[in-house]
Amino acid sequence: MLIVQKYGGTSVGSIERIRAVAERVAGTKKQGNEVVVIVSAMSGETDKLIDLAQQLSQNPEGREIDLLLSSGERISAALTAIAIQELGLPSMSFTGRQVGIITSGSHTTAKIERITGERVKKAIGKGIIPVIAGFQGITATSEVTTLGRGGSDLTAVAVAVALKADLCEIYTDVDGVYTTDPNIVPEAKKLDKISYDEMLELASLGAKVLQARSVEFAKIYGMPVVVRSSFNNNPGTLVVKEDKDMEKVVVSGVAYDKNQVKITVIGVPDKPGVAARLFNAIAGASIVVDMIVQNISSDGEATDISFTVPKSDSRKALIITEEIVNKLGARDVKLREDIAKVSVVGVGMRTHSGVAAKMFGTLAQHKINIMMIGTSEIKVSCIIGSKHSDLAVRVLHDAFGLGEKKGKKQDRTKRIPTK
Ligand code: ADP
Ligand code: ASP
Ligand code: MG
């Protein structure tokens, strides 16, 4: 088999951990497989580099940030190749440029356009284990780019697709994908498998165990992905195409996201074109809006619009909104940073009713106020106060019966409610 193994920040967080990675890679190779390794920066490194830049500027240029951040993954790639060589196996580290990972030009959120992969293919042909610096690419005009936070997952899946690998293994600090973040809810249950669609929703809704775009990529190309721990040999979670069994489970997981802010425009004129002007201006600054709620105006003259954007874009979004508001003749703009989004996800929602009612009821029982609601075919999300986030995740996880039952393995099909 040709296996792509990606090791996240904690998995290469120290010299000791890098040695452990090298041992695992060597073990996989000795079992007769070809291995291609992708590494993240050592844990904390990317945040440290961002902090250095922010000490110099509140709004540093994306181009410089990309060059800066790409260095984190170069360090761990070179160190990992050295560790593998020390075990007597030939290995070579490569940057995104050397692999030919060609991306769009949107700095800090670049999209992979194609991967040439010539040098990596040659290395594999010679029995050399390639170690690729994740998270980075290069534009057609040789500008260094990065793929968004958590982007080494995307490098791994994209390289696996380009090399026609049999499997893409994502090694991290938890045993797999759980019903919710096991660091918040210890009773969370590991899933043996999860569909691409559910994983995509969980990831988009904040479950950072896999980067959302990497799941999208895997789904498009049908690449099987396994999420496993680099700290033990437990089996992990397989991310695959949906099967009939999966639809029987109504809710598969609970996700939370504390990285959004809410902007409310108060007293906007209730007439055609207002929302279009506001969101055109926001989109023009490449800011991704998530949830939007517009009230019905009671007097037919003025209404309120609330929307959420990533915390990192809050200043930019606020400035743009304030400018537009002056032109539109709205009354006021308010920013709330102390919010969190909690979501329940499951492909079974397509065929079962009552999920939203149960979610709202559970939050109400715990006196958690809902500020905004959003739904899709397979998820329900609520914006709540951030101080209630952990509690909400715990009580929802419990209400939907997702936890590991003491002493016995839970039968997932038993959770189908009677209609
Ligand atoms: P890496 O550095 O290996 O890329 P990340 O920190 O990006 O690791 O992702 C792993 C983390 O994702 C876990 O430590 C866990 O806290 C978090 N997480 C959030 N939701 C889930 C979930 N549903 N299942 C597993 N882990 C989750
Ligand atoms: N080092 C990058 C980050 O922290 C990419 C990654 O770890 O996947 O976001
Ligand atoms: Mg990650």
Task: Describe, in plain words, how this protein is organized in 3D.
This protein has about 425 residues and is of the alpha/beta class. The chain is built from 13 helices and 20 strands. It has helices at about 15-30, 45-55, 60-85, 95-100, 120-125, 150-160, 195-205, 210-220, 245, 275-285, 315-330, 355-365, 390-400; strands at about 1-5, 35-40, 90-95, 100-105, 110-115, 130-135, 135-140, 145, 165-170, 195, 225-230, 235-240, 255, 260-270, 290-295, 300-310, 330-335, 340-345, 370-375, 380-385. Strands 3-6-2-1-9-11-12-10 form an 8-stranded mixed beta sheet, with helices on both faces. Strand 11 and strand 12 (about 235-240) form a beta hairpin. Helix 2 (about 45-55) packs antiparallel against helix 3, helix 7 (about 195-205) runs antiparallel to helix 8 and helix 12 (about 355-365) crosses helix 13 (about 390-400). The chain is globular. Mean pLDDT is about 95; it is low at about 405-419. The structure holds adenosine-5'-diphosphate, aspartic acid and magnesium ion. Adenosine-5'-diphosphate (ADP) binds near residues 10 and 207.
Give a short synopsis of this structure.
With 419 residues, the chain is an alpha/beta fold. It contains 13 helices and 20 strands.
Descriptors:
alpha/beta; binds magnesium ion; four-stranded antiparallel beta sheet; 13 helices; binds aspartic acid; binds adenosine-5'-diphosphate; 419 residues
| Strand fraction | 15-25%
Please report the total strand number as a whole number.
20
**Category by helix and strand content:** alpha/beta
- The 3D shape can be described as globular
Q: How would you sum up the major sheet? A: 8 strands, mixed
- Tally of helical runs: 13
**Termini distance?**
45 Å
Radius of gyration: 23 Å
Contiguous runs where pLDDT drops below 50 for at least 5 residues: 406-419
Q: What share of the residues lie within helices?
A: 25-40%
Order of strands side by side in the largest beta sheet?
3-6-2-1-9-11-12-10
- Look at the structure and give the mean pLDDT: 93
Ligands, deduplicated: adenosine-5'-diphosphate, aspartic acid, magnesium ion
